[in-house]
Amino acid sequence: MGTEKNISDMKDKEYNKSKKRRRRRRRRDVSRVQKLYETCKQIFANCGPGVVPSPENVERVKAVLDNMTEADVGLMPNMPYFKSTLSDGPPKIMYLHLHECDKFSIGIFCLPPSAVIPLHNHPGMTVFSKLLFGKMHIKSYDWVDNLLPHQSTPSANISDNDTRDWTGLRLAKLKKNSEFTAPCKTSILYPADGGNMHCFTARTACAVLDVLGPPYCDPEGRHCQYYYDFPFPNFSDGLSVPEEQQNKYAWLKEGEKPEDFTVDGALYSGPDIIVN
């Protein structure tokens, strides 16, 4: 009886060890995309429009994204998405949808060389952008809301034959205006800071993984608004800004989505996201 009990105990111990090995193997086998989804699900659970995750939670998402490359999402630079085609219009941008719920979305923009995502905003959102590969120029702005009460209606030095509509301008401060080359750290913007309005220009073929929390939602008023930017010196509004600082400001004007800007959907073929 004692021998049988010892054998049974040994089997139980070996079974438990085997279970632990399988659990460790499963943890090791979890894709980075799955880890990104699970992290976002946790940190955005109690967030909403205008609510920024805690600094610790922002770092959790950033830590996952910082280590991701195109291989983690099943992309290669020689795929058709990233090749320029001979046409009269601008290079076509493709969007790969990975996940979207009412709390956050995950997707990838695939840009051929010279492709441009025009200046646009992210109302009430915290946004993580990870350049997976390639070289990209990023220009971004934040609103200047505490300078002067008349900043939204500047008086322009306009010639008599200038028929453009200069009303509705709003002052913004330049946050970024530089090139990024992968591998690089994740860019983060917030509802009122970090460059909430930004523009991407592909210097080479590149891919950008975006996490938006919460995502755009027209019924809730979170729609994508496009802007045109004008140099600060073009207008005078009694603003006292030293000449050497004027290149850090610009006037932004809302506009329709540029007619030549299109984004087509494409099938994501990377590791599956298991929604739980």
UniProtKB/TrEMBL annotation:
One molecular function GO term is: cysteine dioxygenase activity
Instruction: Write out the biased-composition intervals (Basic and acidic residues).
Output: 1-17
Q: Which GO terms describe its biological process?
A: detection of hypoxia
Which cofactor is recorded for it?
Fe(2+)
Question: Which keywords fit this entry according to its UniProt record?
Answer: Dioxygenase, Iron, Metal-binding, Oxidoreductase
Concerning InterPro entries, the annotation shows: PCO/ADO, RmlC-like_jellyroll, RmlC_Cupin_sf
Family affiliation: Belongs to the cysteine dioxygenase family.
Q: What is this protein called?
A: cysteine dioxygenase
The record lists the organism as: Nicotiana sylvestris
Its ancestry begins with: Eukaryota, Viridiplantae, Streptophyta, Embryophyta, Tracheophyta
